[in-house]
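Render this sequence as a predicted structure.
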Amino acid sequence: MTIKLSEGARTLFSAPVFAVLSTSDPAGAVQSSVIWVRTDGDDVVFSTIRGRLKTRNMQRNPRVSLIAYDPRDPYVYVEVRGTVTLTEEGGDALIDELSRAYDGVGWEPKPDQVRVVARITPTKIIERGTPK
């Protein structure tokens, strides 16, 4: 069962805040990465590169956790637990959009990298406080 994002979660994930994605490796250990994110409906999307550890982890086990906090009040946070799907379609466009939002400049594609869109469909959301 999927869950809808609250207004607070939408506000937080729609701002250029850094989020931490946690996946699990083959032995079950947690692997975390700081990433750029945005919402798409009730899903949270981000870009990664085919072949990276987090991508391989998500291909093997699509259950992930993503957490972000309000930089103005770090006690305000949203955690999204869910399943992720991966597609190459739109990968370059998404990283360019995120780069413009977070860094203010377009993304410079690298021909040896295949960009992937990762889409987290929430199954559980944990919130504390309301983003400002």
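Summary. The helical segments are 7-14, 53-60, 91-103. The two ends are 29 Å apart (CA to CA).
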